[in-house]
Design brief:
Largest interface: A-B, 22 and 26 residues
Order of helices and strands of chain A: EEEEEEEEEEE
Number of helices of chain B: 0
Number of helices of chain A: 0
Radius of gyration of chain B: 13 Å
Structural class of chain A: mainly beta
Structural class of chain B: mainly beta
Strand content of chain B: over 45%
Distance between the termini of chain B: 36 Å
Oligomer: heterodimer
């Protein structure tokens, strides 16, 4: 089945720094979704991005299907960006369920 | 738009008791998904309904777990004879047609003592 690998596992940033989070998947997919989660909080959908590049504020998601990877770029990080970022894939072979990576834990220091 | 609603937010049960978790999807969404999140396993798919019909329950433990969607406005996940290893956050998500963006509820944190 689909396997989703995220890197790095954790990241510490100084406020204002940029960061790039990676998501690699083992089989071709129908869609890619990025989520944000605070400790004890719910999953907030950031991007639904099956291919190409999408931007929302300081966040940019790029998915390259042929290379089986997706990235999430955070520019000018802020302390409020601290939390866990999860990517999830949906594939034909897996039906419509999402297969999640383990997440990247981000800490932004003031 | 109230988002996906899940109740209760927290539930504590004794080993062997039954737990029923409720989910109200976003109005107009035809697909409902259940997932489970633990520190050890991360996020795992449990089951999926579309237009109230069960489509995929490949992630559901074969014993003690069942899910229903009696009408378009709510779904339930029932765990019989709860065990400590059932302790987790149970998340419900809905999407417009099943193949697009999934929106998650706040989850129900289940603790089995």
């Amino acid at each position: 089945g689909q396997q989703v690998q995220q890197s790095p596992a954790s990241l510490v940033l100084q406020e204002g720094e940029n960061a790039e989070l990676q998501c690699n998947f083992s089989t071709s997919l129908n869609s890619m979704q990025w989520f944000y989660q605070r400790p004890g909080g719910s999953l907030v959908s950031l991007f639904y991005n099956p291919s190409g590049t999408k931007q929302s504020g300081r966040l940019t998601s790029t998915t390259v299907i042929k290379e089986r990877r997706s990235s999430l770029h955070i520019s000018s990080s802020q302390t409020t960006d601290s939390g866990t970022y999860l990517c999830a894939t949906m594939t034909n072979s897996a039906g419509n369920k999402l297969t999640f990576g383990i997440g990247t834990r981000v800490l932004v220091r003031p | 738009n109230a988002g996906v609603i899940q109740t209760p937010r927290h539930k504590v049960t004794g080993k062997g008791q039954e737990a029923t978790l409720w989910c109200e999807p976003i109005s107009g969404h035809s697909a409902v998904f259940w997932y489970r999140q633990t520190i050890v396993q991360g996020l795992e798919f449990l089951t999926y309904f579309r237009n109230q019909a069960p489509i995929d329950d490949s992630g559901m433990p074969k014993e003690r777990f069942s899910a229903q969607m009696p009408n378009q406005s709510h779904s339930t996940l029932k765990i019989q004879s709860t065990q400590p290893q059932d302790s987790a956050v149970y998340l419900c998500a809905s999407s417009l047609d099943g193949a697009d963006t999934q929106y998650f509820g706040p989850g129900t944190r289940l603790l089995v003592l």
